[in-house]
């Protein structure tokens, strides 16, 4: 049952990934990519990596929407139905991606995977965090907050000159 | 654990959700135009027998994906919210899952707004993305604060951690932020700018027939789920005297839902070019401070 | 057959109505709105959301084309009600009743659907009127695309970006919008870059409804101050209701319209001033409204003078909020004098000196005022000035003199 679900999702992930390059609209390409990521997220859920799986679903939806807004703002056409392609430099692109794929696939097959020791922890995400950060946990958490504060502060600084309420001719704004 | 939730709950979940969403729509109709209990049914029949509009050069695949994903996201979000003490899907990171499913609505509205190839819905779709960027961070901090208070991302454990004192009482800022973002995630009332009348109905302006029905049913369901999640997060979950747990869950959900429905039409709509500043300059710091206070209390 | 008819009849019980008003049809629009309120009816924000289209007044050629496009955009089952500018309350009532009957008439709806199928799908080349439709399909400059739509052209944005440009018409058929006004917006994202003002006139001349008492008095008729002040109060409340609706405050907008209809009713009830005072306190006291309306659409004395602005917007310089407060204050003063039996003198109408077309100055300043505004702010700004296109039709009052 799980194996069937795994294969269906794997094929769907690869298929919608390929669809990114086959569809002719920016909006469809974005959401094909999102579908691919969502399949990967559910795969992680199947592997009992619940936190990571849910996080992938959450982050990818938000990320793709922000990306969609930017992409279409710069390169758009209303309705998104103008023929366009995500592929540039066709021949080289195919060559490079085929080589990268072959290298990665070979890696999977050639690496001597270690045998599992012990049992699956109750909360793999928690154990992973412990293993990576261990005694530096407090530092990492402070750094995390610092990064967030920096992001918020830079946005606040950037809003000093907003987009609205300025006539095109007036630099200082109509406010 | 998953083996304790019987299979029939999977069937019951959409039915319960539909019942709650219907009563939300009926309450709304009653408050606004005195339509009574049959008003949503009448509207539903009207839309089912209605022809679909022909729209020029619309990307119907994207429109349908957007419209259908609204009720689907609501059901998937509801799956992790306990009714009584059991949820259909007993996920240990349920709070994050709820958050992820509620963000699906951004994509839904954007797809529906973009796909119909019309200017007003397009602007409406963009408005929800802007709204999302404004409300999502304070909203996440509100969720994290409740989870921090309980030391768990599991709805059941968050509810169980509130015996004696509801989180709504000692985390008032987080609760207020949550209620505001509940309005925003269902683009309802003062947070309904993406569907506002100044855009002739915004993202939903061109939807008709069954598409429109599914869209607005999904929106009602999202509002219901947002209200239902407030119960285990801030209102003590299923705990309460005399009545069984599931009854308390329903009563509390109805109370929050009634409040959210009542708010509609009582306030002017919030425009994101104004609200964004307030969200980032006031709500995020306030929510962070609340998280800090809760963190200190939990540690000591 | 029986089931289908019964279902349709059930569904047609309280159909959402889309109201399209032509210049000259204001009186009819007010009747329709009050009749819909009596029936607990709903108004729809877009043609797609409506089952019934009510056309108030007789539209001129350009407006008729826009109304046809709206009618064409409505999904069946649907019904059309045309009410001319002289329609009585009974006619309005009968018209809506007929629409409800028509909606549940299976044979008529099937015939309508078959006729539409024959005409084939909508296409931009087949109909130019689509640009005038509310929420009209994006109309693009630039080169043609194979579907018949042109691709959006690009232009420099003042933030140093190169962004797509969209041409979006606002009006003439749009909810909570001055009848007959058409603004051709050039949008980049949701920011208005340029505005072209146009007017879609009504076919019927006639006296501008809101200025009528003053014009009648000027023509030598005996009109009391009380009657004129009732009209002024109602006019301001109509404008305020429209602005509140655009601001997304349904409850207050509905109350403003109810007060408007009370003020117009032959014998205004005694509690009207008190009820209005409560309403005005609530609107002025709303912090959210202050937050949302403050600082947008700002007009200072110099700007007003340059364009020859007169009437309430010139008396209350400032932002959208200041103009709303101006209307509320004006209504309060007018309501005090509704019983005054003195004969009316002077020409100071609800929108400024009647006969001098005060709305013309409003249309003239819109392009400069709206440049750089966000789309929602632009709509609020227009609603806060509420120009009356009825004043602009030359025939409207010269014919009367």
Automatic annotation (TrEMBL), chain A:
Top-rank taxon: Bacteria
Membrane topology: Multi-pass membrane protein
Name of a matching Pfam family: Oxidored_q3
EC number of the protein: 7.1.1.-
UniProt keyword annotations, A-Z: Cell membrane, Membrane, NAD, Quinone, Transmembrane, Transmembrane helix
Record-stated family: Belongs to the complex I subunit 6 family.
Protein name: NADH-quinone oxidoreductase subunit J
Organism: Actinomadura physcomitrii
Source taxonomy: Bacteria, Bacillati, Actinomycetota, Actinomycetes, Streptosporangiales
TrEMBL record, chain B:
Main subcellular localisation: membrane
Compartments, as annotated in UniProt: Cell membrane; Membrane
A Pfam family that the UniProt record links to this protein: NADHdh
Keyword NAD on entry: yes
KW Transcription (keyword) present: no
Biological process terms in GO annotation: aerobic respiration
InterPro entries hit by this protein: NADH_UbQ_OxRdtase_su1/FPO (IPR001694)
GO cellular component: a single term: plasma membrane
GO MF, one example: NADH dehydrogenase activity
Membrane spanning stretches: 6-25, 61-83, 103-126, 133-153, 165-188, 221-239, 245-263, 275-299
Keywords: Membrane, NAD, Transmembrane, Transmembrane helix
Family: Belongs to the complex I subunit 1 family.
Protein name, entry field: NADH-quinone oxidoreductase subunit H
Species assigned in the record: Actinomadura physcomitrii
TrEMBL record, chain C:
Record region (Disordered): 107-153
Source superkingdom: Bacteria
Comp. bias intervals (Basic and acidic residues): 137-147
Protein name: Uncharacterized protein
Organism, scientific name: Actinomadura physcomitrii
């Amino acid at each position: 049952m799980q194996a069937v679900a795994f294969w269906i999702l794997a094929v769907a992930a690869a298929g919608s990934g390929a669809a990114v390059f086959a569809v002719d609209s920016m909006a469809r390409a974005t959401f094909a990519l999102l579908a691919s990521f969502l399949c990967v997220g559910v795969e992680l859920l199947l592997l009992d990596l619940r936190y990571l799986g849910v996080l992938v679903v959450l982050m990818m939806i938000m990320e793709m929407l922000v990306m969609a807004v930017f992409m279409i703002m710069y390169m758009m056409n209303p309705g998104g139905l103008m023929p366009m392609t995500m592929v540039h430099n066709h021949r080289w692109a195919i060559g490079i991606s085929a080589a990268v794929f072959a290298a990665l696939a070979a890696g999977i097959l050639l690496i001597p995977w270690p045998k599992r020791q012990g049992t699956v922890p109750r909360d793999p995400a928690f154990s992973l965090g412990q293993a990576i950060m261990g005694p530096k946990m407090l530092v990492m958490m402070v750094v995390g907050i610092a990064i967030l504060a920096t992001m918020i502060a830079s946005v606040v600084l950037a809003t000093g000159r907003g987009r609205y309420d300025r006539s095109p001719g007036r630099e200082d704004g109509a406010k | 654990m998953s083996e304790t939730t019987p299979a029939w709950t999977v069937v019951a979940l959409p039915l319960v959700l539909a019942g709650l969403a219907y009563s939300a729509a009926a309450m709304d109709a009653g408050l606004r135009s005195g339509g009574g209990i049959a008003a949503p049914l009448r509207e539903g029949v009207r839309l089912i027998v209605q022809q679909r509009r022909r729209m020029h050069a619309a990307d119907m695949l994207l429109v349908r994906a957007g419209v259908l994903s609204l009720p689907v996201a609501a059901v998937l979000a509801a799956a992790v919210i306990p009714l009584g003490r059991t949820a259909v899907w007993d996920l240990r990171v349920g709070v994050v899952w709820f958050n992820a499913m509620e963000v699906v609505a951004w994509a839904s509205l954007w797809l529906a707004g973009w796909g119909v190839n019309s200017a007003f819905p397009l602007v409406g779709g963009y408005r929800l993305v802007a709204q999302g960027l404004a409300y999502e961070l304070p909203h996440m901090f509100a969720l994290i604060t409740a989870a921090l208070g309980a030391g768990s991302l599991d709805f059941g454990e968050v509810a169980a951690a509130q015996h004696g004192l509801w989180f709504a009482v000692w985390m008032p800022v987080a609760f207020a932020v949550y209620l505001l973002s509940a309005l925003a995630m269902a683009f309802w009332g003062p947070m309904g700018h993406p569907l506002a009348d100044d855009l002739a109905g915004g993202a939903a302006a061109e939807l008709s027939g069954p598409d429109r029905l599914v869209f607005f049913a999904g929106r009602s369901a999202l509002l219901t789920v947002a209200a239902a999640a407030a119960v285990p997060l801030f209102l003590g979950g299923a705990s309460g005297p005399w009545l069984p747990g599931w009854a308390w869950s329903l009563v509390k959900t109805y109370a929050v839902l009634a409040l959210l429905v009542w708010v509609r039409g009582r306030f002017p709509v919030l425009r994101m070019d104004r609200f964004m500043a307030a969200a980032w300059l006031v709500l995020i710091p306030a929510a962070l401070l609340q998280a800090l206070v809760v963190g200190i209390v939990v540690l000591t | 057959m029986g089931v289908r008819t019964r279902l349709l009849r059930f569904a047609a019980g309280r159909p959402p109505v889309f109201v399209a008003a032509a210049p000259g049809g204001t009186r009819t629009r007010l009747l329709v709105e009050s009749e819909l309120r009596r029936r607990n009816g709903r108004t729809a924000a877009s043609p797609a959301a409506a089952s019934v289209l009510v056309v108030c007044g007789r539209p001129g050629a350009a407006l008729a084309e826009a109304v046809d496009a709206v009618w064409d955009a409505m999904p069946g089952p649907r019904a059309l009600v045309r009410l001319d500018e002289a329609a009585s309350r009974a006619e309005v009532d009968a018209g809506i009743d007929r629409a409800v009957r028509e909606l549940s008439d299976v044979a008529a709806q099937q015939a309508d659907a078959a006729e539409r199928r024959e005409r084939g799908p909508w296409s931009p080349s087949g109909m130019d009127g689509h640009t005038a439709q509310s929420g009209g399909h994006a109309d693009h400059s630039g080169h043609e695309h194979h579907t018949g739509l042109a691709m959006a052209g690009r232009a420099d944005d003042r933030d140093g970006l190169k962004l797509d440009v969209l041409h979006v018409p606002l009006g003439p058929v749009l909810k909570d919008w001055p009848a007959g006004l058409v603004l051709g917006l050039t949008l980049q994202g949701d920011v208005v870059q340029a505005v072209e003002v146009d007017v879609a006139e009504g076919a019927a001349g006639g006296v501008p409804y809101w200025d009528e008492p003053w014009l009648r008095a000027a023509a030598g008729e005996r009109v009391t101050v009380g009657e004129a002040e009732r009209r002024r109060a109602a006019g301001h409340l109509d404008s305020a209701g429209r602005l509140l609706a655009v601001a997304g405050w349904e409850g207050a907008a509905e109350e403003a319209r109810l007060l408007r209809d009370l003020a117009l009713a032959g014998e205004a009830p005694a509690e009207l001033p008190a009820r209005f005072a409560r309403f005005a306190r609530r609107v002025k006291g709303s912090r959210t409204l202050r937050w949302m309306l403050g600082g947008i659409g700002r007009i200072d004395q110099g700007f007003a003078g340059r364009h020859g602005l007169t009437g309430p917007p010139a008396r209350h310089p400032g932002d959208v909020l200041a103009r709303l407060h101006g209307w509320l204050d004006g209504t309060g003063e007018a309501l005090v004098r509704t019983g005054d039996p003195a004969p009316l003198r002077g020409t100071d109408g609800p929108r400024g000196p009647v006969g001098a077309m005060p709305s013309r100055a409003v249309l003239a300043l819109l392009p400069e005022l709206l440049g750089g505004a966000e789309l929602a702010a632009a709509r609020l700004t227009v609603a806060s000035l509420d120009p009356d296109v009825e004043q602009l039709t030359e025939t409207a009052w010269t014919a009367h003199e």
